[in-house]
Amino acid sequence: MSSNASISEIEQEELLDKLQVFKIKGKDKNGRKIIRIIGKFFPARLVSVDVLKKYLEERVFQKLGERKFSVLYVHTGVNRSENFPGISGLRSIYDAIPVNVKDNLEAVYFIHPGLQSRLFLATFGRFLFSAAGLYGKVRYVSRVDYLWEHVRRKEVEIPEFVIDHDDDLEYRPMMDYGLESDHPRVYGAPPTVDSPVSTYSMSNGPMLPIFSMPRRRSSLCLKLTLVTIHVVYLVILFLFDGDLIEKTKKEPWYTALYLLLFAVTLIQYFATSISSPGYALDAMRAVNERNTIYKKTLETSNQSASSRNGSIIVTVEGNQTGRNVLGSNATAWSKLVADLYSGSIIRPWTCTYCNVEQPPRVKHCHDCDKCVLQFDHHCVWLGNCIGQGNHCLFWWYLCAETALCLWTGVLYISYLKAHITLVWWQDGIMILLLITLAISVIFLLLLLLFHSYLILTNQTTYELVRRRRITYLRGLPERVHPFSKGVYRNVYNFCCLRSSVYNSLEPIPSHEEIEEKSRPYSCLAVVTCRCC
């Protein structure tokens, strides 16, 4: 680990403070202080070994005193070339740790170790860290949920990307053992020029891209299956029910309305399946492009004005505080995302897959391999994510599908009432289809009511299910919905203000706003429509 000549020792120490690589906060179940170390944040190329040893001695070890403590090391997303100081540097740092500090260290909780880290510690680690029995104090933690068996949950802040990696492991458990790569290219992401991962190929498959990936094949099969089920219900109904055909001749409007609903439902289904849920990468490009156009327009107008007046105009953009935090080269997207977190102590995270800074309510979908704005869920039947851009379409599709199933159920029941004793095998088929239809109706009604509740409270399925694992929701009371603006405005924003990128990005409420939302509703609050 070599020091960058352009960065002084003071700047290196300030960088470590800014990145919060080392942070003393929280306690474990035995009441011991915890040093949280984020391996991904450590700038190994910029910070020298000597500066790091001095930093630890003056700003970390002195705060511990003579009391017992534990270390919480987060290995998630560590890049060997960017974050690893080297074996010799690691040994030098460990030797510089005072003996009393080594003795007071009780446990090292190693989050997301991976196979390579385990092998390294089991071989070289036994010799490098033999003093004070450090190797024997390591406790591997493969999931964040297991950490709470040893550490007090509400006292330690776990970064969002660590929680996301937990989700990765749920989808791809072999990543734990190094038998499955965690690089996006393996899962169909577009290759990049500087990617260190070699091209993976399966056996010679079909030439069409839609058939080249198992997930796309399964999605297409599910779509065909769903359409086939709709057609089967329709064909059997008209094939078996002669009275319906006679009724169609006498009252064609009735059947025409039913067929219209059938067509609208399928159209809505395909429209939702091909719609964009709103991707963070597209939003970032739109914001940056719009800012570039605005700057060019402003420069052109300033130049024309200065040429007419014979004067020089100097413009200053942005406030100085934002410039100090983000740097002078920060993009418009970075500044926008930082503003969305301004009311909270939580800092924005960069997705390790998309390499894009995530605004609040953004989640990386591992099926689409993209960060989705206001991620709700990935619908297997649609083969698409449900998010900010298509949640409204999805809700209308649920309405149409529920109405179609109810109407079809009424037609099937009418047939059975009139022909229950005529042909037994036809009755058996109709009863079987009706039972399946009844189950579908119950599921659709519950799903429709559930998403209606989410709309009224401005929540998403992901936020509701994973509330305790999302950083900005973890400490809030269950009945507090931080992004809710009242029922009326929630519905209005959901239906009418989804097309604009700026309207879809919601800031994290400040502490004062959370306290206001936490207050129970009184008669005065209802009269003044605080809930609306």
UniProtKB/TrEMBL annotation:
GO terms for cellular component: endomembrane system. It holds the Pfam family DHHC. GO terms for molecular function: protein-cysteine S-palmitoyltransferase activity. Its EC number is 2.3.1.225. Keywords: Acyltransferase, Membrane, Transferase, Transmembrane, Transmembrane helix. InterPro entries: CRAL-TRIO_dom, CRAL-TRIO_dom_sf, Palmitoyltrfase_DHHC. Coiled coil: none annotated. SMART domains: SEC14 (SM00516). The chain crosses the membrane at residues 220-240, 252-271, 394-416, 428-450. Residues 15-167 form the CRAL-TRIO domain. It catalyses: L-cysteinyl-[protein] + hexadecanoyl-CoA = S-hexadecanoyl-L-cysteinyl-[protein] + CoA. The keyword Metal-binding does not apply. It is a multi-pass membrane protein. It is an enzyme of class 2 (transferase). It is found in: Endomembrane system. It comes from the Eukaryota. PANTHER family: OS01G0948300 PROTEIN. The DHHC domain is required for palmitoyltransferase activity. Belongs to the DHHC palmitoyltransferase family. This is S-acyltransferase. It comes from Lupinus luteus. The lineage of its organism: Eukaryota, Viridiplantae, Streptophyta, Embryophyta, Tracheophyta.
